[in-house]
Amino acid sequence: MAPAYRVSHLAALEAESIFVMREVVAELERPVLLFSGGKDSIVMLRLAEKAFAPARIPFPVMHVDTGHNFPEVIAFRDARVSELGLQLVVASVPEAIESGLVVEPADGMRNRIQTPVLLDAVEKYRFDALFGGARRDEEKARAKERVFSFRDEFGQWDPKNQRPELWSLYNGRHHPGESIRVFPLSNWTELDVWHYIKREGLALPSIYYAHERTVISRDGMLYAVNEFITPRGTETPFTATVRYRTVGDASCTAAVESRADTVDKVIDEVAATRITERGATRGDDRVSEAAMEDRKREGYF
Amino acid sequence: MSVEALAPSSAEQRAMDLLRFATAGSVDDGKSTLIGRLLYDTKSLFTDQLAAVEAVSAARGDEYTNLALLTDGLRAEREQGITIDVAYRYFATPRRKFIIADTPGHIQYTRNMVTGASTADLALILVDARKGLVEQSRRHAFLCSLLRVPHLVLCVNKMDLVDWSQEVFERIADEFTAFAAKLEAPDLSVIPISALHGDNIASRSENMPWYEGPSLLHHLEHVHIASDRNLVDVRFPVQYVIRPQSTTVTDYRGYAGQVASGVLKPGDEVMVLPSGFTSRISAIDTADGPVAEAFPPMSVTVRLEDEIDISRGDMICRPNNAPAVAQDIEAMVCWMDESKPLRVGGKYALKHTTRSVRAVVRDLHYRLDVNSLHRDEEAAELRLNEIGRLRLRTTAPLLADEYRRNRTTGGFILIDEATNRTVAAGMIVEAS
Predict the structure, then answer these.
(1) Is the pLDDT of residue B219 over 80?
(2) Dmax of chain B from CA atoms?
(3) Considering the entire predicted model, what is its pTM?
(4) What is the ipTM of this complex?
(5) Of A100, A55, A61, which Cα lies nearest the Cα of A80?
(6) Distance between terminal CA atoms of chain B?
(7) Do A5 and B422 lie within an 8 Å CB cutoff?
(8) How buried is residue B197: exposed, middle or buried, by Cβ count under 10 Å (0-12/13-18/19+)?
(9) A200 contacts in B (CB within 8 Å)?
């Protein structure tokens, strides 16, 4: 009997993502990969390693640093970048506040002011392709975004003016100053990402696994008490066993209660959970029904 | 079957494969209800998503929770209560991971449906049992056959509203089967369902004992897709040449790409187009080590025994089984641009596999009415969402197969060189 030539869904997703990355390097001038030290960007970096082996990854990585960081994540970022011999560009929000490019918001949430800082770095380094780790399962505006997402010279996304994307024929053509955001993980889910982390034996910052932390409960979410978040009014700090499902700005990323301290336990937890990762952990997405769409229109990832 | 049993456990996930399917239709057909039901029954719907949809439905004064709001992600879509664009949704069972390309059904969104169908292994077409086949159902079936979607499922929905009538179902099924036969639709299944009540969605309906086929989900899980891939014609479009500039790896020259069709093995004699040089495969590499064979959809790096000049856009095939090397292309084209129509004499950038050339429209043979399938041979142009047959001449040869034989080496897009927009999808009928 003829062999079945079966391909698992993870292998199929990996092959598609590698194809996307090679297509970008072949067709665009100056790509950069957004690397925060978060799990999705760690998976993206692994795919980039695989796409160009045995050669080195042929582009730099960039981190938009809000200054509100988890120290474990920054340490992880630096170690991984040096292990792969990559150039790291840091687009710093604190420096941009200092120079007057952006103004610190009254509520201290720096999510929204990341965008001008990102666009400024893109212009400075003349990047024309930016790899992001966003997935379509994360949020409903993202469910309609292309793998190759065209941005005008202001970095803006126009959901009504997206290029049709047929077969695996991606259109990366653009005029000077315009750029393409590329999402190689578009078709992955949170669970796929965790299965891949397991399959590849990828190291992650420790905060993705269950640990004890002093937290407060705010808006139904658990926030770590640290230099950015201090108890207000009746909020009382307590110790809980938590882990982070997403890692973003430390002032608006919440933890979830969890006993999952290994990759297998996290996979079981993610498979059983009934709340989306952004809904469970991101203060910034709770603003309105179209919070993500509005930020993307302004140039956000 | 219990709902609990459907969520994939970690041990099983590794062995799952991937099925992409497209759905077309409007809220009236119950398409959103069907997708909501599939997500709900496979535990892929999250409580915060559901709560958000319930809150918005209540605020809008909807009488029931409008599951369309789950997929209609853009502000304009929610405000106008319509689906504008293709939305991708994901769910999984222990057997398979599914990617749904959810597309709007109205004729003004034909381009979105063509886009969703281009990558689909299977298409779901919905009809309302009370109305039977309508113009839209035939159009959807035609577009699926044009895009060569290998499997078609007609869901006869709202069976609860026709008293679960076998007679109604069979009349619609017979009519559709006869129509599909004319389209050369490859594999057709017809399933009576009630998306609202869950009949024949995740499990067999007790209301329709006369129906002996599988539930929709069972069908989606078991439909055989492995043999849809073309494993006969070796086609490896070279995407990128890997030449490490390093002191540890020297003299490495590999051709990176994704296998479009066929099976490649080390030792195979191959031909490289357009040059026509031949060589043998010395190794097939991946970052995880060399492999004994490569087949679709694997992304690999091929090395050859001889040093020959190969670059992006070239194609590795077999000396006795090669695509056409052609500059005159006969194709069916769906026009996707609202600002300018396609006209004879128009020049465009053309992207086919990993190859980019320029093309001029030499002749427009006819415009096809997607509802009646009538051919208008007097047509002088194609407007947004219109489909026609035309002849192109390219500046450099394409390494092309007929689309009906190979969806990867038979499909292309046209790009407007001034705006850089993707303006057309093309399916090669003949290349010479």
Answers:
(1) yes
(2) 75
(3) 0.93
(4) 0.92
(5) A61
(6) 54
(7) no
(8) middle
(9) none
